[in-house]
Amino acid sequence: MNRLTDISYIKGVLQKHGFTFSKSLGQNFLTNPNICPRMAQMSGASDRVGVIEVGPGAGVLTAELAKISHKVVAIELDKRLLPVLDETLAEYKNIKVINDDIMKIDLKKVINDEFPNGDVVICANLPYYITSPVIMRLLEERLPIQSITVMVQKEAAERICALPGTRESGAISAAVHYYSEPEILFKVSKGSFIPAPKVDSAVIKLNVLKQPIVSVDNEKLFFKIIKASFMQRRKNLSNSLCSGLSISKPQIIEILSSAGISPTVRAEEVTMNQFAAIANELEHSK
Question: Which domains can be identified in the chain, with CATH numbers?
């Protein structure tokens, strides 16, 4: 057994360094020995592909990534974990830990500095409370990366990967599909962690597209329309857009008609191409 998935060993190291779990940081450490090797292998890491890991925790996934990647840069917000990681990852010489906030750090600079000549993937076990903001930041930055492999809450995974135009889809589904091709890799039971969360998780992979899946003339407007559409998802599209965009009902109906979309559909029924058509029609009507 990998000692990093040995509960008694991990608890001992954490206790030695006076570490206690933070609920506000959503800290749950993996102890299932089967999960991290599988996640690392499916992330795309290799001896030619470097990895940026978000939130290494006690280092169990970090170690598996280091075994197959030429270099791993782990970004950890909680400075209390730095001495823990120094101990648990001492045998690996291809790991660099940076104490910083993934929402604030200059990721383009990190990639340029640490991986100047190679391909890069991102891998992480994300805290539930910050899943969407982290994923959207990684995608919106248009980083020179191949993919993002993350473990998230099972329901979040299903929503993120849901195809726009289906009942399960939401604003995050459309945004993710704009930048990437998402897929659910496998499920992870809540018993795989300490402390155990209340819900199961899933590992998803977002294969980053070189070009967005649809063409829009005003990207900011496109995302504003998506957000407004799902703000009140039980309402029909024309009403959601009226309130969300502060545009008159007749103008919205005209825009939708020009885009070939019924004003009575709901946001979950709208495809990526249709969202793009709405955005382009509205942009040209200004």
Answer: 3-208 (3.40.50.150), 219-284 (1.10.8.100)
pLDDT at 176: 97
Tens of pLDDT, residues 10-37: 788 888 988 876 665 556 777 788 999 9
SS3 call for 148: strand
Q: What pLDDT is stored for residue 24 in this prediction?
A: 55
- Class of residue 246 by CB neighbours under 10 A (exposed 0-12, middle 13-18, buried 19+): exposed
- Interaxial angle between packed helices 60-68 and 35-42, expressed in degrees from 0 to 180 and rounded to the nearest 10: 40
d(CA 252, CA 225): 11
Tell me if residue 145 falls in helix, strand or coil: coil
Antiparallel, parallel or unpaired: β 95-99 and 180-188? unpaired
Per the DSSP assignment, residues forming a β-bridge with 51 are 72, 121
Q: What is the CA radius of gyration of the chain?
A: 21
> What's the pTM value of the predicted model, to 2 decimals?
0.92
Q: Which residues pair with 205 in a beta bridge?
A: 149, 183
Up-side HSE of residue 135: CA atoms within 13 Å toward CB?
A: 34
CB contact at 8 A, 283 and 217: yes
